[in-house]
Write a structure and sequence with these properties.
The complex is a heterotetramer, with 1 copy of chain A (about 270 residues), 2 copies of chain B (about 280 residues) and 1 copy of chain C (about 230 residues). Chain A is built from 12 helices and 2 strands, in the order H-H-H-H-H-H-H-E-E-H-H-H-H-H. By secondary structure, chain A is mainly alpha-helical. Chain A folds into 2 domains: about 20-160 and about 245-270, no CATH class; about 160-240, no CATH class. In chain A, strands 1-2 form a two-stranded antiparallel ribbon. In chain A, strand 1 and strand 2 form a beta hairpin. In chain A, helix 1 packs across helix 10, helix 6 (about 85-95) runs antiparallel to helix 8 and helix 10 crosses helix 11. The model of chain A is unreliable at about 1-5 (pLDDT under 50). Chain B has about 280 residues and is of the alpha/beta class. Chain B has helices at about 45-50, 75-80, 100-110, 115-125, 140-155, 170-185, 200-205, 225-230, 230-235, 240-250, 265-280; strands at about 5-15, 20-30, 35-40, 60-65, 70, 80-85, 160-165, 190-195, 210-215, 215-220. In chain B, the strands form 2 sheets. In chain B, strands 6-7-8-3-9-10 form a 6-stranded mixed beta sheet, with helices on both faces. In chain B, strands 2-1-4-5 form a 4-stranded antiparallel beta sheet, with helices on one face. The mean pLDDT of chain B is about 85. By secondary structure, chain C is an all-alpha fold. Chain C has one domain (about 10-215): Arp2/3 complex 21 kDa subunit ARPC3 (Orthogonal Bundle), CATH 1.10.1760. Chain C contains 8 helices and 2 strands. In chain C, helix 3 (about 70-80) packs across helix 5. The model of chain C has no long low-confidence stretch (mean pLDDT about 85). Classes of the chains: A mainly alpha (about 270), B alpha/beta (about 280), C mainly alpha (about 230). Chains in contact: A-B, A-C, A-D, B-D, C-D. The interface between A and C is large, with 66 and 59 residues. The structure holds adenosine-5'-triphosphate (2 copies) and magnesium ion (MG) (2 copies). One adenosine-5'-triphosphate (ATP) sits at the interface of chains B and D.
Chain lengths: ~270, ~280, ~230, ~280
């Protein structure tokens, strides 16, 4: 049942949004840093990693996200599970690199007809790519985990993103839940009166799926119109231009910037 | 043969968020009964209903419907003998037109097309929604939606009919005709379970009442007994009907012995009372 | 198709951001003050729906993932400029809430999915509309959506290919890999987009009256007059 | 100064699908009144409510609220003085926690934070939903949702409060406390408009009743008059309450002249009746 699997994805996705909020409420190092500073530092760390050509430096750099995560009371497990997927794919797609890079052979396997040779240079290119991707993903994940949605909106406001765009952000975030609930309702309704599942795929069943999709869409749209009415009647206004103040830079933020730069500097000099 | 159609045994249930909705509930519903679930908001009535329909499965304990556990694999098939109306009509309706929605269940059961048509036409006129036939269900008034969702269950002619708050949002004439329809079905042998806050309709809706509160069973008994049991009603956060209130007053004054629960009985009682009164004083 | 951090070279990052920022400014100027009661919930909902649709993604060869993009539906139903803003919101949320798509790659991702993936289908449908005067609309919606997906994928492949040595493979591998993978998704995208446009035209033509792509259709015009 | 707070003049409205929901309705609501909208399902009550709140605009005719026409331009001014509760709580609740939802309105009105906190705490305890404070609203029981949506409007302390079917799905204790809250607010000067099918609660909910049917005004009048006007009720597809039914019977028998509409009045009447009866016969 493809519909069910994708529904589970949806619900889990929504759930993890709530999870983001949870960690951002903890009182740790990153949570106390000005969001704008965090963003700048994250961007700096990611960009810097692109210029580092050496595997050992990259590996050393990976200590930074781990230390930051510990200092921010973000469970290491949360960080590791959230950063597993993308580096894994990076690894998978660069597997061929192990074999097609020319250089000194490190491993040799003979499968009768095939003769596969893994080269040292190949291993190096493979690892550099994967480790760098992990470092980037981990840095971004820390930023995400330590910043709730509200803080994120404030940060957007402080970098002068137009208020209408920010209102659209918050509307989207709300509607995400609204549409998930509406889809859930439709599926429950269908489930409750479906006694015999037919698994064949034919023109008829495709037509039914299309009709279901259409109903879900129009229903969700009409629900969101009414939710919009409710939001409006309690003060929501897309064109509302109340400027939120830029959170001031404090000593702590500056200290954080300084220490990260120093650590990076040391790494590069070494 | 055992005539318990639903057996709920020590059932516990909690929602994913960690909310403990049911903390060990047991009761039975016999074939042909009319039973009402009563209890304050959030007491677990709807949860019980979803569990009985096999749409949720108990954490602990077990539920058997038609002698089959609701967790068993063949329960989906068994559900065709059971009709359910959700509290929220939006949980019930999912197609593009009222008629399609009503016919979905029977079609899924492979009932021959002419009979499907006949049944749906009959139910449309019975519920009084012929004029809505081709409208999309999500664009109806709330009460109209509720009526359509009642129709989608009634059209299945199930042996066991479970209705969550069926009279809420209905206008009074529709409420009356719904009650009559349910009683007719019950006379023909359908077992009817309703959850309701509508104590005024209770005497006509149910013979027996099961009271839940905070996920536990508080008590059960014949409707007329429960309606007069002000202690039980109080604990369950309920109120007697206005007729019962009126006559309870007369009872505390020693004017009458037993309290009538319907308007008709009330009338009779009053007339009697006046007569005896007149007689006694003359 | 969300390119993560660590896949693109600094040069590509700068170039893609430059192009994207120009489009952001134009799109914002075009949309500002034009969103009305009917458009706002529609835009919010479509953004939310395709945000959700993008989360259902499946890994493919070529270093990224495949999923519905939604650019075609956004571009056609909301108009390309509002669609571009919508897609930007989606991609920013994907990056900042899920880490799907990198920060440094944001420019590239918006260029592929929010500009190419939005404008191409919108222009295909618009151009056809002029030519055939509203006949066979949904076929063109399908074609537009398919073309949008494949072109967006080719653009992503090109950006990756030009990012050597940060990325492993050159143009000759990255471009075909992306294009082939996304032509499958493109078909699904086409069907979904056609269903959405079709159902709106049938049931709520009044909400399409702000779409620069569809507002000239007779059904939409009639509905617009009816609500005035 | 004119004391009509809402003026509905010859209003017509049809939904995008082409459904003609209102066909020319006119009435006024005066400052400080408690008014109920009565009518069968699909008669246009909810549509009227959305129009009065300025969330829909009439096709023809006009609506003035606080001496301003309800056009989208005037909406900003209007919404600060007007609170609305939708019939479907899922339309009303849109944030991730109950408390957030309740505080959404006051925050938007730029009420200072300490007062927002104070107000929300007060309303939570008044409605009896403190224990739900941090729960996500969409994961509540239907009645609990309804209570939260009532809270989101009451917390605004508006001058004009419009409630669509507020007592449906509430348990009886909550219904009682809601009615008391509304009456308190009304005493303090809030104008209250409710749409309802709950005729039992009507005597306490409203002083005046406006009856609509099929998108047209059928009649209006004081609650006690309308409740006894069986012709009007009949046309509107309504029923008198059980107390009224009981006493109407007595009236047709010539035992009483006027019909009481609440339990309390009923008691008084009965006692009186017995006394006179006893006296007369002695
Ligand atoms: N989807 C859900 N997720 C989490 N908790 C839920 C969910 N639905 C209900 N609950 C909780 O479970 C408990 C029982 O809810 P249920 O819906 O069974 O109550 P109910 O008796 O039907 O109430 P009502 O009279 O309001 O309909 C309540 O505490 C409620 O908050
Ligand atoms: N979104 C909608 N689109 C189209 N028609 C609608 C919509 N909502 C309501 N209607 C129709 O408009 C008419 C009036 O509906 P309304 O919701 O105002 O009725 P109501 O008096 O509130 O009924 P109820 O007692 O069931 O709540 C009905 O015929 C209904 O079918
Ligand atoms: Mg319930
Ligand atoms: Mg209504």
């Amino acid at each position: 049942m493809p519909l069910k699997t994708s529904l589970r994805d949806l619900v889990e996705g929504a759930e993890s949004l709530v999870y983001v909020e949870d960690l951002s409420n903890k009182k740790g190092l990153l949570q106390s840093i000005n969001p704008l500073v965090k963003l700048a530092i994250t961007l700096f760390m990611i960009s810097a990693s692109l210029f580092v050509p050496s595997l050992s430096y990259l590996a050393l750099m990976c200590v930074i996200p781990i230390v930051l995560s510990l200092a921010s009371k973000i469970p290491l497990r949360a960080l590791l599970t959230r950063t597993a997927l993308i580096p894994f794919f990076a690894a998978v797609i660069s597997l061929p690199i192990l074999f097609i890079t020319s250089g000194a052979p490190a491993l040799n396997a003979n499968f009768g007809l095939f003769n596969l040779t893994v080269t040292i240079e190949g291993i190096q290119r493979f690892l550099i790519f994967t480790v760098r991707v992990w470092f980037c993903v981990a840095s971004l994940t820390l930023l995400i985990l330590s910043m709730g949605f509200t803080a994120f909106l404030k940060m957007l406001a402080s970098i002068r993103v137009p208020s209408i765009v920010i209102q659209l952000f918050s509307l989207t975030y709300r509607y995400l839940f609204v549409s998930i609930h509406e889809i859930q309702k439709v599926l429950i309704a269908k489930e409750a009166r479906t006694y015999i599942n037919r698994h064949t795929i034919n023109l008829e069943s495709l037509r039914h799926s299309g009709a279901l999709l259409a109903t879900i869409f129009i229903r969700t749209y009409e629900r969101s119109e009414r939710v919009y009415m409710a939001m409006k009647s309690r003060g929501f206004d897309v064109n509302n231009t109340n400027k939120s103040s830029i959170p001031p830079l404090r000593k702590k933020d500056l200290l954080f910037v300084a220490s990260t730069t120093v650590i990076f500097g040391l790494l590069v000099v070494l | 043969m055992d005539d318990a159609i639903v057996k709920v045994k020590e059932v516990q249930f909690s929602y994913p968020g960690g909310v403990n909705a049911l903390r060990g509930v047991s009761f039975e519903i016999r074939r042909g009964e009319k039973v009402a679930l009563l209890g304050p908001n959030g007491s677990g009535k709807s949860t019980l209903i979803l569990l009985m329909a096999g749409l949720l499965t108990p954490k602990k304990g077990e539920i058997t419907v038609f002698d089959e556990k609701t967790t068993s694999k063949n329960f989906q098939k068994l559900r065709q003998r059971l009709g359910i109306v959700f509290q929220d009509p939006d949980d019930q309706l999912f197609t593009q037109s009222v008629i399609e929605d009503i016919e979905y269940g029977p079609r899924n059961l492979k009932i021959p097309e002419p009979e499907v048509k006949e049944r749906s036409a009959h139910i449309l006129s019975k519920i009084g929604i012929q004029h809505l036939e081709n409208r999309p269900p999500h664009r109806l008034s709330f009460g109209e939606k509720k009526k359509v969702s009642l129709a989608t269950a009634l059209v299945l002619k199930p042996e066991l009919l479970i209705l969550d708050e069926p009279t809420a949002n209905l206008d009074l004439v529709s409420r009356r005709s719904l009650i009559d329809t349910l009683n007719e079905l019950n006379c023909e042998g359908t077992t009817v379970v309703v959850s309701t806050h509508d104590v005024e309709a209770l005497p006509e809706l149910a013979d027996r009442v099961i009271v839940v509160s905070h996920g536990s069973l508080l008590g059960e008994g014949a409707t007329s007994d429960v309606l007069q049991d002000s202690k039980l009603l109080d604990v369950a956060g309920l109120e007697p009907t206005s007729i019962v209130k009126l006559f309870l007053k007369l009872k505390t004054m020693g004017l009458i012995q037993d309290v009538p629960i319907t308007v008709k009985d009330g009338e009779k009682k009053l007339l009697e009372l006046m007569k005896t009164k007149t007689e006694r004083t003359t | 198709m969300h390119i993560p951090d660590g896949f693109l070279s600094p040069q590509i990052i700068i170039i893609t951001f430059a192009i994207t920022i120009i489009f952001w400014i134009i799109a914002f100027k075009r949309v500002k003050g034009r969103l009305d009661e009917r458009q706002v919930p529609l835009m919010g909902l479509l953004t939310a729906l395709f945000f959700a649709a993008q989360m259902m993604n499946y890994p493919i060869v070529g270093g990224t993932t495949a999923h519905l993009l939604g650019g075609a539906a956004l571009g056609i139903i909301l108009g390309p400029f509002a669609g571009c803003i919508s897609m930007t919101i989606i991609l920013v949320l994907q990056a900042f809430l899920f880490g799907d798509g990198g920060l440094t790659a944001l420019g590239a991702n918006v260029l592929n999915m929010g500009i190419i993936g939005v404008f191409v289908p919108a222009f295909i449908v618009l151009a056809f509309n002029k030519i055939t005067k509203g006949k066979g609309l949904l076929v063109w919606v399908f074609i537009g959506a398919f073309a949008g997906d494949v072109l967006a994928a080719i653009a992503a492949g090109a950006e990756l290919g030009f990012s050597q040595p940060v990325f492993q493979y050159g143009l000759n591998v990255a471009v075909p890999a992306m294009a082939i993978n996304h032509s499958v998704i493109g078909v699904i995208e086409g069907v979904v987009t056609a269903v959405l446009v079709g159902v709106l035209l049938k049931l709520r033509p009044d909400v399409l009256s702000k779409s620069s792509v569809l507002k000239s259709l007779p059904a939409v015009k009639a509905a617009q007059e009816n609500t005035e």
